[in-house]
Write a structure and sequence with these properties.
The complex is a heterodimer of chains A (about 260) and B (about 15). Chain A is mostly beta strands and about 260 residues long. Chain A has helices spanning about 10-20, 70-80, 140-150, 210-215; strands spanning about 1-5, 25-30, 35-40, 45-55, 60, 65-70, 85-90, 100-105, 110-115, 125, 135-140, 155-160, 165-175, 175-185, 195-200, 205-210, 225-230, 235-240, 245-250, 255. Chain B is mainly β and about 15 residues long. The chains are: A mainly beta (about 260), B mainly beta (about 15).
Chain lengths: ~260, ~15
């Protein structure tokens, strides 16, 4: 038996909306520690890792580890039916191939029950090493979204360069070139407005912009985003979900032949 | 000319 209750159905809805274009099907692994998901896009270029800790839920019960394979577009269809302030309760047991989503309005006057068919998904999970990165940049998530969208109108790829003074995003295309340079900014009223650059060694990597633009769909989930880079390694783009976990996106770099 | 890397080249099977 699995049962978990979230104060805001809207949170899960936003999470699924932010990842469902990259991965259409995924298996949620449920255990005493929470709900996890790891899935690659069909081209095996990017990966989504979602972690929702059990202590971030209002109620969480998983008698034993349990896998729930879901079509994320179908899941999104159901989650869209939740009211803005509804609570969400998820229920499933191994006896039937269904997960139930219960949406309850704040005054308890409306209770909606949606049952989603579970599916068997064969997927390969990758072991992601817990590596030290050469450079870590934290910046407002809206700023990162603006940068990748702006550069996406110029070129297909972005060259990211981190030095101790700044982080540069550069793109070029048929119409010309663009470079956006962000300096470290620590003296802000709100901590989420900071741009923090931690550099062990300078890095310079090139990535396909369309994936980064896709990752930035998670902008509404967190005020700030953390980008971790090491030479010739996939970049990590992390959105922390307050009090419950994170959604991380990994993207393999372009490699010089 | 740069080619797109695949994740399997960087991360092993779990």
């Amino acid at each position: 038996m699995f049962e978990a209750q979230m104060a805001q159905a809207a949170l899960l809805k936003q999470i699924i909306e932010s990842i469902r274009e990259l991965i259409t099907e995924a298996t949620f692994e449920v255990s005493g520690t929470g709900m996890m998901l790891q899935a690659m896009d069909s081209s095996h270029v990017s990966l989504v890792a979602l972690n929702l800790r059990s202590d971030g839920f209002q109620l969480f019960r998983a008698d034993r580890p349990f896998s729930m394979g879901m079509n994320l577009n179908h899941m999104a269809k159901m989650l869209k039916c939740a009211g803005k302030d509804d609570t969400l309760t998820m229920r499933a047991d191994e006896a039937n191939d269904l997960v139930t989503f219960l949406f309850e309005s704040p005054g308890n006057e409306r209770l909606a029950e949606f049952e989603l068919k579970l599916m068997d998904i064969t997927s390969e999970n990758l072991g992601i090493p817990d590596a030290e990165y050469s450079a870590t940049v934290s910046m407002p998530s809206a700023e990162f979204q603006r940068i990748v969208k702006d550069l996406g109108s110029i070129g297909d790829t972005v060259e990211i360069t981190v030095t101790k003074d700044d982080v540069r995003f550069a793109a070029s295309g048929d119409i010309g070139n663009a470079t956006i340079k962000c300096r470290q900014l620590l003296d802000t009223e709100k901590p989420e407005d900071r741009t923090l650059i931690e550099m062990v060694e300078p890095v310079n990597l090139t990535f396909a912009l369309r994936y980064l633009i896709n990752f930035s769909k998670a902008t509404s989930l967190a005020p700030s985003v953390t980008i971790k880079l090491s030479t010739e390694m996939p970049v990590v783009v992390e959105y922390k979900l307050s009090d419950i976990g994170y959604v991380r996106f990994y993207l393999a770099p372009k490699i010089e032949d | 000319k740069a080619t797109q890397g695949r994740l399997e080249s960087f991360f092993g099977p779990s």
